[in-house]
Amino acid sequence: MERKFDAWSQLAEKPDNKSRIRAAPLASARDITKDLPPQVAAFEKFLEETGGIRGGWDEYDHGTFLKFKNRYKGKIIFIKHALVAIPTKTEEEIRDHEEWYQTYLSMNEKKKESIKKWREKKEGEKEEVLSKVESEIAEDQQKEEQKQQRLKEQIQEEKRQRFSQLNAWKVQKELERAQAEEKKLREALDKAQKEEDMKKEKAELKQKVENYKKEREEEEKFLEEQKKVWEEEEKERHRQISAREIHRFRDRDQRKIQEKLAKEKEKENEKIQKRLDRLREQVDRDPSRLLKPTAEWTSRLKDKGPSGSGPVIQMPHRAIPSWRQGMT
Q: In which residue ranges is the amino acid composition biased (Basic and acidic residues) (predicted)?
């Protein structure tokens, strides 16, 4: 139930979207909070009758109203400035909205305080129940111990009586029989007690599971409905914001791209111009150089001696390995 309050409180603080989307969840919330403190039901009824958490105004007008109210710290002069920024509203409508907003804040604060007290009360009740359960468990345990003690004393008394009445042989036989009966009786009692405890535990567990399942289903249903409303509100808000922001970002990005391209083009032109200037400074025009031999060719001509064109007197051959000498 505490999580229901948290989910409901978050819903009250989020902007609603359209009245037709808000209608179904309000009915569901009213059914769930019918047994809760009257401040909660009163706040819910107030929202339903006055158009939600913005008092029937759209998101932009209400947001502008709050912006000027906060800017002037709630002073009445903010109405004059808000009137200029909200051309769709008259001064009387803004004053009525200010009165509504003060009522909304007051009732919302009372609702929060009521929920806080409700939680404290539930915590106290929980502690009381736990204390009572612990007391009952201790009492049952004490009763069981007393029962076992009485049974033990009864058995001991029977054993003493039989021992005093019978002779040695009969005492031995009777003692063996008594021990067997005692063991059988104890096993029967233990079995019966275990079965009773298990039956009781299963019944309690089943009831707890059913209660938890029912409460969980109610919580999940309520939270799912609130989630749908919140998602629709978020989608609408993002659509409104995106439509304005996309156009602004697109213009900004286009300007940045144009500026970047212009700078890059200017830098490239400067690089080309510098290269052309360096080439003009380093290269001297001399048409006669085309008919002159290169430095490499001149170097080769110098390396050739007078014996380069004489007859071959001896031709070098590779040496024959020792293991092949003497073979034909």
A: 280-289
